[in-house]
Every structure is written in structure tokens, then in C-alpha cells.
What we know:
Elements: E1 5-8, H1 18-34, E2 37-40, H2 52-64, H3 88-100, E3 104-107, H4 111-123, H5 139-147, E4 153-156, E5 163-167, E6 171-175, E7 184-186, H6 194-204, E8 209-213, H7 220-230, E9 236-240, E10 243-244, H8 260-266, H9 270-278, H10 294-300, E11 311-312, H11 315-328, H12 331-344, H13 355-368, H14 378-381, H15 383-386, H16 390-395, H17 400-404, H18 406-420, H19 427-441, H20 446-457, H21 465-475, H22 487-498
Parallel strand pairs: 1-2, 8-9, 10-11
Antiparallel strand pairs: 3-4, 4-7, 5-6
Amino acid sequence: xxxxxxxxxxxxxxxxxxxxxxxxxxxxxxxxxxxxxxxxxxxxxxxxxxxxxxxxxxxxxxxxxxxxxxxxxxxxxxxxxxxxxxxxxxxxxxxxxxxxxxxxxxxxxxxxxxxxxxxxxxxxxxxxxxxxxxxxxxxxxxxxxxxxxxxxxxxxxxxxxxxxxxxxxxxxxxxxxxxxxxxxxxxxxxxxxxxxxxxxxxxxxxxxxxxxxxxxxxxxxxxxxxxxxxxxxxxxxxxxxxxxxxxxxxxxxxxxxxxxxxxxxxxxxxxxxxxxxxxxxxxxxxxxxxxxxxxxxxxxxxxxxxxxxxxxxxxxxxxxxxxxxxxxxxxxxxxxxxxxxxxxxxxxxxxxxxxxxxxxxxxxxxxxxxxxxxxxxxxxxxxxxxxxxxxxxxxxxxxxxxxxxxxxxxxxxxxxxxxxxxxxxxxxxxxxxxxxxxxxxxxxxxxxxxxxxxxxxxxxxxxxxxxxxxxxxxxxxxxxxxxxxxxxxxxxxxxxxxxxx
Length: 501
């Protein structure tokens, strides 16, 4: 086998959908497994819908997912340019070459004429197909009309015969030429048609394998016709199954998040999404392992383990996988990734965060990460650290018994007086104080700790006090948008709200 070269060729007309992201990932894994090249090519000939902003976003999203490329529009390469909009003269040259070879011709039919043909075919129950009315025009006459400025497209002349290939996923696949017709190579506005441009690009960029979604299967016979007309050997094709939603309809926005941007905004880690996407329509050697590192994926990836049947996207499964990666991720990295969510919640200032704030965020993430599925859930999980309402704590249905229970009040009175005498509260000193309260009041277990938890958090359950106390004490010293109240402050406010002292 010659050196593997694959490409991911998105159109910059919107955000990167998970289906496209999986296609990019499979191409990248295939290239890296074989020590080949991964090429990024931008198919931006749809002038009305293509935007530079979308191109910048897709490059950013792919890098976020952990993919890199050996050649592309942002870094160049020996076979560029890598934007189709910059390759128009190349397409024109090969289209004219096909005319010279007698395998293509100029077409002067107007959109109105073509629509009339289409409607007549539909009424007759036939597959709409170009009639070939411009085929018989003398080549010299057509060239003269074009030279005089008359708009004309260029069509490929289909001579008949089936167009088939051995798909690396679906097996032998074939289409009759009857469903193709003489299709357009170059439009009258000078832009290439997709099925022409992609062949020229793939051939000139030495692409050995075309790995793409199965929505392109119907395009493949047209592309094979172009390869045949130019006398070029086609690459090998592998068409990936569709990704479905839980209701087994094609995955769309109505199913929830569908783009890489959506998942980034949700706080899904790239390594979790990458791992999950790899398992949509592909399986590792043992068929059961689900958590796979990037080196594992590269080592095991092969096209023969891709399934033909559609893959179902399961958000809950992705969340499960994200929880796994959250629990093992570097805390400093998580702190930086979680900070924007806390900014959005109004807890952190929207600028660079000093070292002491990031260190404190590490402790916060360590305390809450076992209870969250995404980073977007961090503000809610950390709310009890940032927000404290003594009046609400004293009067909520699940906690108001503490404010009324004489035994609970006795515990809190003793605790507050002893903590107030400390120059600084640490968890070790807090434990010593609680032990002294136990000895003084004779209360232990739930009788001792339940009122303390309620007074500090306003809830009957939640974060362990061993983690909460240091967060409150250190957080109260930091320049946060929402100041954190210390242990003593909270107890004093609870005492005031319940007329405890």
C-alpha cells in the first residue's frame, strides 16, 4: 500500500456537527494508525452560505477535539491551496480538458428549460435527468458562443454502464448510469459542482482513502464517472453509517446538543467526546472496552471494525463517560476550564485569575467533581459555597426543626462561642471544637452534626464538612465577585436569624 493519505473536507456553512466530527476523527485515527497524512481541505464554493467565521470556528473546534493535520489552509502544504475557492482555475482547466477529449460539453439550457424537463419527467413517473439536448451541438459552435460571452455550464457526457466499487464498510455497491445523467461539472457562474471539484482535489492531493458519511454514497457513482473520464484510478471508499437520535430518527437539534460548540458550552471534556464518538459505529478488538485513551484508539483503529448499521447517540452515555474523565482529569486544568462557568454564574470576576484563586478552584473541583456530569454543572454544585441565606436556612421545611429544637440550639450556642475565641479556623481546629462541644453537651452522631450542617449550609445534606470548612475559610479571603462567607460568619448570621444568642 502506498502511504495513506486521507482528508476531512468540511464546508464552512455552520458549526461542526457530531456526524462531521466523527468523520474527522475516523480519518485522523486511520491516518495516525498507518503513519499517513491527514489533510484538512475547506470546500467553500457555496458562496452564499460559506463564511470565514465558520471556517475559524471549525478549525478551533477540531483543535479542541484534539485533532491536528499535516496539511491545511492555516499551515499550507505541498499540494495546496487547501480552499476550493482558491482552486477555481484548476477546475476550469480540467473541465476544458474533458471537452477537448470529447467527454464533456457546454450546456446553454436555462434554469426554466431544466425545470420544465424535470416536471415532465416527474409527471411521467421517470427519474428526473437531463435530456442531453446540448450534447449534439457542434463543439466549435459552442466554443464560439462561450467566447462571445454567452453563459454556459459544462456537463460530463455519460456513456452508460454501471458504476460500482468495493466499499470498505458496505461491500460491493453499484449504480446504473440511468440514474446519473449528464451532470454538471462547472456551473455557468464559474464555480465547480461538488462532484467534480472533489475528484480533482482528491486526485491532485494523492488521497488514497475517502472516509465519509453514507449520505455521500449517491455521489460516488458520479465521482467514479469523472475519474473514468479523466483516466484516473479512484481512491478506496468507506462510507460511515448515519448517527441517529434516541428515537432513531436522524440526529438533529431537536434531540439537544449536536455540534462541537454545543458540547464545549455544556462543559464536556474533549477527551470524553473523542472517546465516545470513536465508539459510534466502531468497536475495539475485544468489542467491550469503552474507556480508551488516544494511544489505544490509534493502535486499535481499523476500517474493518466499522459497522454498517446506524449508530444511536446517547447523551446519558456521553455524560457517564464525561464523569469518568472529570474524576481523573488534572485539577489545575479543570479549574481553568470551570472558571468561565463560574464567571457566567456571577461567582468569579471575568478576567485572569491569580494563582491563589486557581488553587482554591482546584480544591472546589475536588470537592464537587464526583457529583457532576459536565463542567456546566459546577456552579450549581458549588452554590452552597458561594451563596448563604441565614433566614432561608432557618425557615426551610427540611431545616427549620434545628431552629426550634432545644438540643440543637444548645449545640450551636456552644459551637459559636468556642469558634469565636479562635484567631483562625482550620478544619483541624474545627474538629477539636466540635469534640469539645460533644463533651460539653453530651450530644453525638446526628444530634451533634445535623444542626451544625444545617447552620453552615442551610441544607440537611451536601458536601462533607471536611471539604467545606477549608473552602469557606480560604474562599472568604479571596477577591471573588460573590464573596464567600466564612464558617464563623455563617454561624453568626444563623444565630441572628434564629435569635439563638
